[in-house]
Design brief:
With 419 residues, the chain is mainly alpha-helical. It is built from 16 helices and no strands. One of its GO terms (cellular component) is plasma membrane.
Length: 419
């Protein structure tokens, strides 16, 4: 297959620019918030609460968001999501105003940050399903795997640059003006998005009762072994492998590398994932996908353990880099499974379940890591998470031989015949 097939569609290129800008802004914002909150509290549990504040609304609204996405026009819905994110970024910019700490109590600032993160969870519950659904309306089915790879690669590239710039930006211009940069990127995304025209609504059941719609979506996900297996495996791995939530502690108190080192540590996994994803455009991962996914999750757990035990900055960076590289394999395979095996009229609901399983497990993983660090100590918490990830991969390989034998080549061949 042509490794640049999806890039030959102008609208898809515009979509990638929008996605890059939004992921860059969101990942940079999360890092700046983590740094500010830990600087205010010096409490590892406060980092976990950031994740919890986002995951509560994201999970509670996920299924309803999926229903709404399947019922609405996707371009304008994405516009609404970006506007919502811009408002939240503006609020965080104002909260970080120099001198505010002199007139407001630290707790007031902290709770206000948590409140805006909470609102961001509602925005995120719509953002993921909308983006997932929009891709399928821009490119033909036969190049879904290639489009999914480029989309994921763009996500990872933004995830590299966002955290890296956040670390250096905090050092160079401070938290306040870093928030201003984030707000600017959200406006940039909004401007480019209007170059994509409105898209047709492919759901034949417009006006379907919401609870019937939700039941159909859940029934489809739980009834599809490939989708359910991939989501479950990744959810548990991410839940217990959420070491990145504790990076401010490692940067400030264990490795003693400051905000610049924090930015490098935070970006290392995304650098590894980006290299994997760009490589996968020439060397696809759809053959023997089940085995590759299981090995990737196992290797991810090993990398997390090495990182947790390391007291050397360069070894920590390498471990995080390799964790991102194998996580990139997992992400590509999961996204390819979802794109190939999800019908057009259910993309919003399936993507919402995906966000509940995988996306929200990032925040739950952050809370679990913060709580475990509070109770067990930071290093013990990270090593425990890595061990649980390895156990998850091994258990899945033993109890689910059908998933271990999963191969996506047949699905790709069928879509090529349809087009």
């Amino acid at each position: 297959m042509d490794p640049y097939a999806a890039l030959r569609y102008k609208e898809f290129n515009i979509f990638l620019i929008v996605r890059f800008a939004m992921v860059f802004a969101w990942s940079m914002q999360f890092i700046v918030i983590e740094w500010q909150v830990y600087s205010l509290t010096k409490d590892p549990l406060s980092l976990g609460i950031i994740g919890l504040m986002e995951v509560i609304p994201a999970v509670s609204m996920a299924l309803f968001a999926g229903h709404i996405v399947d019922q609405r026009e996707k371009r304008n819905l994405l516009v609404t999501c970006i506007v919502g994110f811009s408002v939240i970024s503006l609020g965080l910019f104002l909260l970080s105003w120099p001198g505010l700490e002199d007139s407001w109590e630290s707790k007031t600032i902290l709770y206000s940050i948590y409140a805006l993160v909470f609102l961001g969870g509602f925005v995120r519950s719509f953002l993921g399903p909308t983006i997932f659904s929009l891709i399928a309306l821009i490119v033909p089915k036969k190049i879904y795997p290639n489009a999914a790879t480029w989309s994921s690669s763009t996500w990872q590239l933004a995830s590299v640059l966002g955290p890296a710039l956040a670390g250096f930006s905090i050092s160079w211009i401070g938290v306040h003006w870093s928030m201003c940069v984030i707000f600017g990127f959200s406006l940039f995304a909004l401007i480019f998005l209007f170059q994509i025209p409105k898209k047709p609504i492919l759901n034949p059941k417009i006006g379907e009762p919401v609870f019937q719609s939700l039941r159909d979506g859940l029934k489809f996900v739980f009834g599809n072994k490939a989708i359910f297996g991939a989501l479950t495996l990744d959810m548990i791995a991410v839940l217990f492998g959420g070491a990145v939530a504790l990076l401010p502690i490692y940067a400030q108190d264990i490795l003693h590398v400051g905000s610049e080192g924090f930015g490098i540590l935070r970006a290392a996994p995304a650098v590894g994932a980006s290299i994997t994803m760009l490589g996968s455009t020439r060397f696809p991962l759809h053959k023997k996908a089940g085995k590759k996914l299981l090995w990737a999750v196992f290797a991810f757990g090993v990398c997390i353990i090495v990182f947790g035990l390391s007291e050397l900055f360069w070894l920590s960076v390498i471990a995080l880099f390799l964790s991102g590289a194998v996580d990139g394999v997992s992400m590509i395979i999961r996204q390819t499974i979802l794109q190939l095996k999800t019908p057009d009229n259910m993309r919003g609901r399936v993507a919402s379940v995906n966000s509940m399983f995988v996306g929200s497990s990032n925040e739950l993983g952050a809370f679990e890591s913060g709580l475990a660090a509070k109770l067990l100590g930071t290093v013990t918490a990270v090593v425990f998470g890595g061990c649980m990830t390895i156990l998850t991969a091994g258990t899945t390989a033993i109890v689910s031989p059908s998933f271990r034998k999963l191969d996506l080549q047949k699905d790709i061949d069928e879509h090529e015949k349809e087009d």
